[in-house]
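Researcher: Next entry: TetR/AcrR family transcriptional regulator (Cohnella luojiensis).
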Amino acid sequence: MPKRGRPRNPITQKSILTASYELLLEKGFDDVTVEKIAERAGVSKVTIYKWWPNKAAVVMDGFFSAAKDRLPIPETGTVLEDLLIHATNLSRFMTSPEGKIIAALIGQGQLDSAIIEAFRTHYIHPRRAEAMLLLNRGVQRGELKGNLDLALGVDLLYGPLFYRMLVTGESLNDHHVKQIIVTVFNGLK
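Model: Predicted structure:
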């Protein structure tokens, strides 16, 4: 069945996503409104509501778009180096002012199932897929066990990062990330 209406203008879409992301950083989730996004992007609220059902959806799309740009998938030729780069970039992002929005979204998601589902769909699942891709490359190159449970490997590698950020509140620095990745990696070989 063909989609109804005109397709999204990529320039307008980028303007809206950028505006929503900038406002999120400046004001925080609660103080962002569709009106403010429309004003900053130079579009009407109707345009935003035509493409997104609510404020949360457009704000999260703006955030996820920015996160994707900040978290490229490395390909150095060795799985350990790829994992170190990927996990370090993720850790740096998570501890940045932008990344602290992750904790806020997870918190909001405990009260709003649509927010947590969008967070999982647009942020967590793509990050897991990237990490599984890295592990699968290691399996294909013989750097990791051939029968490795990729999903479990991702949980073991990345779970401690989220645990420190969301539960213990302990610092998350490059040295600690390297310790986690190397320790778990040695168990996956």
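Model: Note for the record: The chain has a mean pLDDT of 89.
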